[in-house]
């Protein structure tokens, strides 16, 4: 019997501690590696005590004294938490001092050419995606008196509230009310918040609403059982009570866009979420129809991601000199769509209030905290969301082909000028390798020509032709010939294999028509997803400049690290003047010298000095203001930052971890026979 007791102890404890060790390592990966180093001693201590029990050197009933140690550990955490919050509130050490409050506001100045006087519309699927997609950018439009509208497709009635345990319609109304609080706190009027009111239709029992193309008038119930649109009692849906059908959703998108005709549209792209994919594809589908029917309406369109460049991006927020949004895949292209090259992204500067020494003090995180039904500001990925820039990809809408006539020797040629780079017949499952995407012109294998004929509405000058390959990396166009109506020919060479834009410089005048012949391909589904032609490089009247350090980090409040000199380059969007001596420099500290050489801004700042620098273009159209400091951070400030970060990354989860360990020990005392009774 004694041997059986010993065997039982060893088996049970081995299983318990093996599982606990795996959980500890996993939570360390989730919450930060620092937790492992603090959690491991507690784990080893508990293992040591259990080892003594196994060896019968300690009676199980005596383990209460050791439980006291384990249960008392969390008591110290509230003290650290309070200390952290105190340091967080004492942020006067830098930005919140009164003498810096005005200076901080100036860091957002000089961007009126980009953000002022516009009518902006944002399309997102759920409440909270507005902040994930636009946090740090949307407030600059508001500050510069642009008219901002935010459109939510879905009510967020799927899942359970993290705070109130609301479900279904009640949860949708909770999230809608949170959204109103968030956007009105930005300064957006409540009347500019548009809830289309469609429930979540992600279900295993029927296709997603977006994919109901064969029966677009079929009424679909949301996962919470509702077949009509809704928002809140005080703020009804765009067409409240409307039946949930694909046609109604399509018409609502079209109606919203044409009713307001925004100058600039931001829309979520093909995120790793069915609801996000649906919004991206529905928007592009509607936009394609509008561009074909509205000759004079050509908004500027930006597409962006809520997940890979925000919520699930690298946890790399830095309290000092924050870095840019990192390439989530470290590849040349975005893997959600394949169609966007990382180098083609547009980097938007963020509001200075987005970048704070404590990430929880960030304006973006404070807005997310209002979404209490989701996660508030306690989401473990808050350090992923905030960076020194927000990245988007511009989709030009001024192609000459939206009104053109296109015919093909075979295949679905009508897909080539519909604004959509691809389509998906099952957005719930997605298509990770893009091998079965739809919306692509794929000529028949038996077609000997594999050609397209494009006839323009009227003779036009063409500066460039843009071709988009099939996004599937296994199906590629290796060469194509473009034959113009005057008999001239251009060979394209290999198209970008990921489906991103391949730009062919043409510079032809008075073109009436041209043909595209695929002369060399690879793969069974080689073809084109879209064709665009542009008369010139004429760009919309908007743009900005932003100083960045030699590593490419946008600069706002820059601190020198061990040197007295900093060199800054200039990022430009839609503004053609590089950094040169024609830029005007304003510097408020005569002890700091600022010069321009070789298209770099060189700042010499002695130790103990700081300054505010403003550079302005020769025409005065754009400017940028930054702060450069060579003052050392105080020990109290550094400690406050460290405590604040440690509390979030380790102390809070470690507190729970310790309690779990204590419970494991306690349960073990009931599972393992007491040796005193043997």
Features:
single chain; alpha+beta; 4 domains; seven-stranded mixed beta sheet; Jelly Rolls; six-stranded antiparallel beta sheet; disordered C terminus; 31% helix; 15 helices; 678 residues; 21 strands; globular; Rossmann fold
Strand proportion, as a percent range, falls in 15-25%
CATH class of the largest domain: Alpha Beta
The assigned CATH architecture of the largest domain is 3-Layer(aba) Sandwich
Distance between the termini: 8 Å
> Compute the gyration radius: what is it?
29 Å
Q: Mean pLDDT score, rounded? A: 82
Structural class: alpha+beta
Q: How would you name the CATH homologous superfamily of the largest domain?
A: LmbE-like
Give the biggest beta sheet.
Answer: 7 strands, mixed
Q: What characteristic shape results from the CA principal axes?
A: globular
In the CATH hierarchy, the third-tier topology of the largest domain is known as Rossmann fold
Q: Roughly what percent helix?
A: 25-40%
Question: Numbering strands along the chain, what is their spatial order in the largest sheet?
Answer: 3-2-1-4-5-7-6
Number of discrete domains:
4
Total beta-strand segments:
21
Low-confidence stretches: 26-38, 71-77, 90-102, 160-166, 670-678
Query: In DSSP terms, counting alpha (H) and pi (I) runs of 4 or more, how many helices?
Result: 15
